[in-house]
Write the structure tokens for this entry.
Amino acid sequence: MTKNLCDINGKIAVITGGGGVICGTLATEMAKQGARVAVLDLSLEKAQQTCDAIIKAGGQAIALSCNVLDRESTLAAAQSVIDTYGRIDILINGAGGNHPMATTGPDSSFFDLPAESIRFVFDLNCLGSIIPSQVFGKYMADQDSGCIINIASMSSFRPLTKTLAYSSAKSAVANFTEWAAVHFAQEYSTNIRVNAIAPGFLLTAQNHYLLKNEDGTDTARGKSIITNTPMGRYGEPSELAGGVIFLCSDAAKFITGVVLPIDGGFNAFSGV
């Protein structure tokens, strides 16, 4: 029988931000493919909800509380994964997000954006990828294999209006992905790969206020996004899973340092 190149059955996958919609979906879909999942989130309750759904569907998962901005918290979570599963094959740095006070708008001038809100977004997205990569990546270096997936954004390629901090932070995540891919291959092991996905526009709680009016109609921004997405719709969280599973599998064993758009064509479209 021909081996399925995208097989991740039996792999140990750690997913930060796993209590959220997007990374909770990634955890669920990877578990369906046979991965044994460690769901990490600042909220243990949310991580457990994802975990319970995976177990109910017949998958294997553990829920762990983890603050990805705190090294000691991340180290403790990593030790729990090792104690349970014995190794770490995959790290998905899913913790991230934006902050309304780091976004310009009618009532929030660029000149008045609070430094602490901007710093929060930078820390959550950038440090929130770097610290877990340090902690879990050390285990990968010791075992001479592993795969790290960061979550970039459309704003990693071109800055989006209004989202000052988020665009800058996600650009940093893409840059870190390329840097880490080279560093791990040159300094630790060519069997460790670092890549990222760049999701297109998904209608989630995080960006709902930017894309939908209170009456449910599209904002001007929402209309512009749909117009400039050749496939003419928002994406679904489950549609990110195929790209992630591919990048984690042997099908991508010569791919490192890439940022893969999963965006319905948005990044390829010039608007003309």
